[in-house]
Amino acid sequence: MKRILTLILCLGVLSAPALAAPPKPKGKPSPSAIPSEMPTFQNERIKFGEGFLKKKDYRQAEQEFRSATRIDPNSFAAAVGLGDALYGRKLYKESLDEYMRAMRLVRPTYAVVPLQAASKLVREGKMMQALTVYQQIAHIKPAAGELLNKGVTALQNGDKTGAKKAFTEALKLDPDYADAHYKLGNMAYEAKVYVDAIAAYEAAVKAAPTDGLIHFKLGNAYYRFQTVAPKGDKYAFYRAWDRKTRDAKWASWCTNKAAVAYRQANKLRPKDFDILYNLGVSEFYLKRYPDAIAVLQAAVLVRNDDPDAHTYLGNAWFQKAHTIKEYNKAIHEYKVAQNLDPKRFELEYNLGQAYMQKSKLHPESDEFEITPANQQLYYAKGAAYHKTHMLEETAKHFEIYLASAAASKNRDDVTKMLTWVKAESSRTVQSGHGSAGGAKPGAKPGGHGGH
Fold first, then answer.
1. What range does the domain containing 356 cover?
2. Which of 86, 106, 139 is the last residue of a domain?
C-alpha cells in the first residue's frame, strides 16, 4: 500500500504542471531581504582603524586595518592605514612593506620621480629615509594626485591659469597635499607675489616638515619679500614703524625670517651648497659675522669653485677682523674669488680696503709678510716697513680698481682714499716709523654675491 501511495505521489509530482516564476517584489527590498555588501564591512573597519590611529592605539588600529585588508586585499586605504599603524608601533620594516604595497596598488603617475628616489634608497639600505618618502606619497589622495599631474602638464604647456586651477582643486580634495601647495608657491614666487608664495610655502612646510627644499624656498620668498611694502593686517607692524627707519627694519625682519627657514633647511640637507650659501649671506646681512663665517666655510667645503661664496666669506672676515691674521683671512678669500673670476674688479676695492686696515695695526713678528724681495727692509725697519708695505698694496689695488668700469659708482670716494694712502705712505717713509695718522678713511666693503 505504501509503495502504491509513494508511486502515486511521485507520479503526481512528475506530472504536475510547471509553476510560473514568482513575481519580483516592487520597490526597494528591505535590508533583511538582501545580503550585506562586503565594502560596507571594509569601510567600517577602515573608519574604526582611523579612529584608533587618532587615539594612538596602534595595536587596535592594526587589527582593524588587517581585517579590512582580508575583506579586500586591493584596498589602498587599508594598506596605507596598516602602514601607519605599524609605523606607530615602530615596526618600520613592516610599515615600509605596507606603504610599498599601497604604491603597487595605485601605481601613482603623480609621484614617479620621488618613488624612483625612494626605491634607490631601499636598494642602498637607507630604510628610514625611504620610509619617509613612501609615507608622504602614500598619504596623497590619488584623485588629488591626478589633478596635480594635470596642473603640471598645463604649466608645461604655458597654461598658468589652468595649472593654478588644477593645483587649487587638488587641495580641495587633499588640503594637506604638500606638493600642490609647493607648486602654487613656486608660481607666486615667479610672479613676484611674495606674500602668496610665503603663505603657500608655509602650508607646504606644515604638510611636509621634513622636506628641506620647501624650507629653502620659504627662505627665498622671505628674503625677496623685503623688496616690496607689505599690505594687510598681518603686517600692520610695518606701517607702525617710523618712516625713516622702516625700510631698514623691514629688510632686517625679512632677512631674519629667511635665515630661520634656511637654518631648518640646513638641518635637513646639511650638504646642500645653495642652502649653506643663502644662510651664510643672510647671517652676513644680519651682522652675525661669526655665524656667517662658519656657514660659508661649510659651503666652500661642499663646493670650492663659487666666487660669490668666497667673496662673502672674505667680507665676513673683514667685518669681524680686529687682528692682522683675521684681515689676512679676508684677503685670502678675496684672492681665491679673484682667481675664480678675474674680471671681478670690485674685489680690487675690497683688497685695497683690507690692506689699508692692516696698515693701521702693529704686527707681531710672525705676522710680517716677508718675501725674498722685501725681507731686508722688514729686517731693517720691522713694523715701520709693514705699514709702508700695506699702504703700497692698498694703492696698487685701488689703482687697478679705478682703471676698471666697476669704479663708476664710487670713483670719487676711492680717489680720495688713494690720495690719503699715498700721502700717508710718504709720511711713513720720511718719518721712519709706522704710526698711522689721520682719520680712518672709507667704509668696509660690501658684498658682491647675492641670492
1. 338-451
2. 139
